[in-house]
Amino acid sequence: MSFPRSLTPVSHFTHLPWCRALLSDPTWKTVPTSSRTPKSSTEDSFFAETLQTPSTIRGCLAQHTAADPTSDPPIREVRILLDLGDGVNGYPHIAHGGFVATLLDEVVGVLLTVNTGFRPKEGRNNETETGINFFTAYLNIKYLSPLVTPGVVLTRAGVERVEGRKRWFWATIEDGAGKVFASAEALFIEARPKL
């Protein structure tokens, strides 16, 4: 099968009815996930290389809500379908807690990335290859249930509020029936401009 590394084909997930229902919702737009594309700078190499194998993250498909140009940021929510292998386990058939934290951090990063195109060039500070320069200040996680692998999960993130260079988010990892395995509150801070 041939497709850009940043975009797993929709057909990878449509064998599951709950995924098919999400992917057929016209209010959500499927978009490439830039963190799945290897870069010469080594930016995103953890997701683009280390976690892109047949035993780790076997498929990844991101979607976002419609942009509201009157909102900051314009895109308020993303969701990502992930096909997880057993190479992410800490216990037998259970994903490692650090990997769960990584997924929550990453889905917020994807939300920041999809909003990059809406920011005026002069309003961006110290851009990286993907066009963003935000860093995780904190990620407060609630582990609610073991994340069983292998299998497909849904990660979601949304904007809580924005104050200057600070952005607060919520994030979850769920199954197709709405069971939440983990949730997080996160604060990301944009780097100060170089002088």
UniProtKB/TrEMBL annotation:
Residue ranges constituting the Thioesterase domain according to the UniProt record: 94-165
Q: What is this protein called?
A: Thioesterase domain-containing protein
Specify the species.
Coniosporium apollinis
Q: What domain of life is recorded for the organism?
A: Eukaryota
